[in-house]
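hey so i finally got around to running both of the ones u sent me last week. sorry it took forever, my laptop kept dying halfway thru and i had to restart like 3 times lol. anyway pasting them below in the order u listed, first the sequence line then the structure token line for each. didnt double check formatting much so if smth looks off just lmk and ill redo it

first one:
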Amino acid sequence: MTTLSAEREIEHLMTLHPKGFDLSLDRVTRLLERLGNPQDRLPPVIHIAGTNGKGSCAAFSRALLEAAGHLVHVHTSPHLVNWHERYRLAAEGGGKLVDDDVFAEAIARVAEANGGQKITVFEILTAVTFILFSEHPAEAAIVEVGLGGRFDATNVIRQPAVSVIMPISMDHEAYLGDRVELIAAEKAGIMKRGCPVVIGAQESDVALQVLIETAERLDCPTVVYGQDFLAFEENGRMVYQDEDGLMDLPSPRLPGRHQYANAAAAIAAVKAAGFEISHRAAERAMTHVAWPARMQKLTQGKLVDLAPKGAEIWLDGGHNPGAGIVIAEALAEQEEKNPRPLVLISGMINTKDQTGYFSAFKGLARHVYTVPVTSSDAGVPNDELALRAEEAGLSAEPVSSVASALMLLRDSWDGPAPRILIGGSLYFAGAVLAENGTPPT
């Protein structure tokens, strides 16, 4: 008898079903009905959409709930190294990535229920989420939207404990629209009539207006960043404020001032979902939160060993102009505290605004090494990516790999140990973690 393997099951699905997204809920709804509608048997759900900050909000929400002693399931996408990262099942002492045998059995069961009908792999794997989360005990489930909101496969959740909309900017224009108000309308599609809504810090007043109007039309109790809650830095700490008062907390473990707003959205979301968070639990959450490939400092591993001695290495999967801005701001903060020359090692895919991403680093980065993203069919050739960086006003050169870039730096560097940002794509960041020997756990 052949032992089931989740990776083999998913590889088989990839040969049977199309890549991409289905902008309707018909297929996933049909499949879930065959499975007995497991999405209707979940613990209270925190449903998170947005362009940037979804993953950080999920990480903070998980940290808050677990610090308060709750058992929590978490679904995020995409994964970085292994498919299992998308499914963190509740466990005493902190959630654990799904065991391979449990994962593989759930995939096989869902595929059998689908009966070979036309569907996408993401829809099947979303149904797997609901199977796993409904059959394992927990007190809360955090579910991150994959793409958009209105037609995302996760949007079959009828009554979320809270819907969260994180910052919206231009991304996935081919699917969601070429204006920020159209994208905001798609993200707002996860709001459900009468269910609480938390709106995180928005970069666009137009997007904010669309979100508020949608929530009002659906009679959703709504709290808005900057109006009903906020967070700010004071004396090196984070102060969170809402109608219940102030919480003086440690600075979030995730670097960058943008994480204050992400943490605040998570606190507001967890409270709106009906959970009480003590000051002590919030303190613990800020110091224990973890989110790989989002301003993650790499301190050991095969690639780290190739870098110039004393180099400071950061990894971030942010891949659009909005993400570029917040990453650049986080690095500018590091520069204020501890000045070092900044070098980028970048790989991107062709569905993103590469020049817009690089523009955020003008005047901050000394040089860019561009590398191919071999983990995605949509990877931009390294020579083409170097041209995009130069269009943004940066000095750039193509190289064959991250290892090559680090060794070039090591062999030619003369001066203070550099600060290195590796990033530009989550596919790329995942490949870097795999090559470095430090996958998420």
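and the second one:
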Amino acid sequence: MFRRTRAFRDPVTIHLDGSPVRAERGEPLAASLLAEDKFILARSPKLHRPRSASCFRGGCDGCLMRVDGTPNVMTCLHATRGDEEVEAQNVVGSRQADLLRVTDWFFPKGIDHHHFMAGVPALGSIMQSFARKIAGLGRMPSEIEAPRPARLLEADVVVVGAGLAGLVVAHKLGAAGARVVVVDDGLSLGGSLLALPDQARRLASIRPSGDLVFSRATAAGIYLGDLLVAAEEGAVVVRAPAKVFATGAHDGIAAFPGNDLPGVFSARALCLLHTYGVEPDGPVVIAGEGVWADELARRLGDRVVRCKASALAGVEGTGQVKRVLLHEGAKDERRIDTEILALALPGAPAFELAAQAGAELRFDPARGYAVACDADGAAGEGIWAVGECTGMDFDPDVITAAAERCAAAINA
């Protein structure tokens, strides 16, 4: 399914279900596994269908695994360091042959375990307990984690998201003397720009540093006007009168049979994988258009088959994608043998945190809800939004200009 495009620079060894796997230090753990054709990483909680990495931004559950005894680790956001013990969770048997997959045969249209046997004396509670146990998500960490401290941090501005939009705003405000806190959950600052090496040079002049930058941290929510951050050091409550949301967009998905099979990726995720030196080793079907479709096609060349998203009829396969089905005309259907389908669809703005802070939303029929803001990014009292979370396309020049306007308005 995948291969490495370059020799190891800093090789390490990890262990998957007890077996050694070669890896590159610092790359996403999910990339390490895919590069060695370990493509089934997890199982869905109820029907135990095979799952794999798909978005490489922590937006799906396909790469959840148990790492060094800690359950539910997003392996796409875990930097490989070497010697990790990685285990499939939520399986009875193995990743490739989960005995509980028979659940899918008995309930091919799904199962609502919340109402299954509901109202039947004793059986309802037994069914609930059984459903939780076979899901595997309740298994506790192997070791008790030591308590970590919490602290309050006051600043002038907090920027959530350190992609291009967030970094430009933080850089401009910091240069003007503001005390700026930056929060980002990625392995490295830069967001989607990291998937475009030719554009990544922009980061050199705007990359922040210091103790006010929280990378690999989660902005957990807004409470009483303060931002709660789950950082590696512990909980940090950030109190700032101005909040800037540069949270980007979730990769677009499409409704078609088999859209959850291992082998269905976003085109952006495959571009990011390519920058880590990991690429598909066979033909790839790209459905959709835009910057990520064009970039992926440029890198993979004649191994690509392109089609409109509306032409997708489904994919075939059991444990992974084997064929992509396309509509060609009113009745004709074309089957393409491939293990990789790349979706290049309009992103769904990541509006959730801004909305919790009090920002207004607007509905875009092509993308869903987005943060409503004026030309300068103002989205409410002390609330600002910039970039893809406002419904913009990913265009580095356009996003940079919007971020500069936003910073200027905050400074005014």
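quick thing i noticed on the 2nd:
The CA atoms of residues 25 and 358 lie 41 Å apart.
anyway thats it, ttyl
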